[in-house]
């Protein structure tokens, strides 16, 4: 009986946690990297709409890769309408264990790019992503994605 009550309260608490914060995905798109080989000159471009300037947004970049990716980290050049930036993030820990979610033979790693972004104008915004690694041909990358989420 006590286990059922605890389970019930855990379920109710979990449901409240998920419904108390409302996040709406405004844009979510992935671009495939041909033959899992991302050339240094290949720029992945995304155009996303912003219709509401009264709220804040967060932007995430997703990297999908296989276990053939040869490094622990990754560097990216990010160029959007607001600024150009270089970011580094880790795809594996110090022991070589992959971080991120494993799905059907690939690992998906979300990277928070903008946490509390405000857009002054409605319209279409652009983001360009290019790898900034030393290899001219980066192996093991299957997809690059962008997700823009409205935070209320």
Précis, in short:
The protein has 1 helix and 11 strands; from the N terminus they run H-E-E-E-E-E-E-E-E-E-E-E. The protein is mainly beta and 152 residues long.
SSE diagram, text form:
Blueprint: H1 2-20, E1 23-32, E2 37-39, E3 44-50, E4 56-65, E5 73-80, E6 84-90, E7 101-103, E8 106-117, E9 123-131, E10 137-139, E11 141-151
Antiparallel strand pairs: 1-11, 2-10, 3-9, 4-8, 4-11, 5-6, 5-9, 7-8
Give structural attributes.
11 strands, 152 residues, Jelly Rolls, four-stranded antiparallel β-sheet, mainly beta, 1 helix
Rounded radius of gyration (Å) = 18 Å
Q: Which percent range describes the beta-strand content?
A: over 45%
The residue fraction in helices comes out at 10-25%
Strand arrangement across the biggest beta sheet: 1-11-4-8-7
**CATH topology value:** Jelly Rolls
Largest sheet: 5 strands, antiparallel
Poorly predicted runs are 2-20
Per DSSP E runs of 2 or more residues, the count of β-strands stands at: 11
Task: Please describe what this structure looks like.
The chain is mainly beta and 152 residues long. Strand 5 and strand 6 form a beta hairpin. It is globular, with a radius of gyration of 18 Å. It has a single domain, classed as Jelly Rolls (Sandwich). It is built from one helix and eleven strands. Strands 1-11-4-8-7 form a five-stranded antiparallel sheet, with no helix packed on it. Strands 3-9-5-6 form a four-stranded antiparallel sheet, with no helix packed on it. A two-stranded antiparallel sheet has the order 2-10.
